[in-house]
Amino acid sequence: MKAVRIHSLGGTGVLTLEETPRPEPADGQVLIKVRAAGVNPVDCKTRSGKFQRPDMALPMTLGRDIAGVVEGVGRGVTGIKPGDEVYAYLDAHGGGYAEYALAEEGETAPKPASLDDIHAAAVPLAATTAWQALFDHGHLQPGQRVLIHGAAGGVGHYAVQFAKVHGATVVATGRSEDRELLESLGADEVIDYRKDRFDERVHDVDLVVDLIGGETQARSWACLKDGGTLISTLEQPSEEKAAEHHAHAEYMSAGPKAEQLQEIARLIDDGKVKVVIEETFPLSEVRQAHETLERKHTQGKIVLTV
Ligand SMILES: NC(=O)c1ccc[n+]([C@@H]2O[C@H](COP(=O)([O-])OP(=O)(O)OC[C@H]3O[C@@H](n4cnc5c(N)ncnc54)[C@H](OP(=O)(O)O)[C@@H]3O)[C@@H](O)[C@H]2O)c1
Prior knowledge:
Blueprint lengths: L1 E5 L9 E4 L9 E11 L1 H8 L11 E2 L3 E9 L11 E5 L10 E5 L3 E3 L6 H5 L2 H14 L7 E5 L4 H12 L3 E6 L4 H6 L4 E4 L5 H4 L3 E6 L3 H7 L3 E9 L6 H6 L3 E4 L6 H12 L7 E6 L3 H10 L5 E5 L1
NADP nicotinamide-adenine-dinucleotide phosphate binds next to helix 1, helix 3, helix 4 and strand 10.
């Protein structure tokens, strides 16, 4: 089968489309014929070496998000059968940029029925991260106010929608050109991070979802109400600042949960959450896909068609 692998860490030049053996599902695993694979910043960081985990080894096939049809299942898989149309959030083992990929049953759920494969592949990692940031870590309650940084991106555009569906008021940071999109997704206030200082305009929010880190995170303390919560997908917040604001503040690392994929699929099929796609590329143009995500302004997701 064809797969995009890396044999060394580096720029987009290390991404190589090559022939590799088709994998076989072990116990508890699902073999998926991939029709589309989402591209995430973590793929670029894995490629360049910025993101590393002990269970990763070279050569490796990148790709954490897939949509496709089940080709076979290993022993012990009970909820999924060949022929099912599914989507999956693959943990750090990756393997999604390929014609066939293995997923654990716990990483896999029925594809939202209302979506085609391209849109379905744009959902798992980003939407799950948004869900876990808002609810598992941020404990967002209806009626609360949340500030979402990087709201027009992959994770952010889901976070805006989930927070609204949950009955929260959403303040979103992005560019002026993102305003229309963000308002259409439900943002109550949009702040252009390049023109306005959000920390001078936003105060007393219950929750900050920081998808940017650095100075953006540092300036966010001024927006948080005393006793509020700051969740970052990028870096560990300052313990001193958290104590000063009596805040709960943490760095989170998202992970796949099939039941959350099912819940997210329900919201999508109910028409409550939209999937925004910036651009699609064939698998053979994976280098351009990474370059686009790393260098250009993107709204929503980039997806590879397989
Ligand atoms: N810890 C975890 O488990 C986890 C999970 C998922 C994602 N992440 C990380 O979270 C980050 C966001 O992921 P993503 O998939 O949403 O990335 P993305 O699709 O690249 O979106 C990021 C968005 O933020 C915008 N942006 C950049 N600088 C900004 C600023 N200062 N203020 C407001 N918006 C700004 C970007 O647009 P412009 O730069 O063009 O303006 C883009 O729209 C990435 O670094 C990713 O690696 C971590």
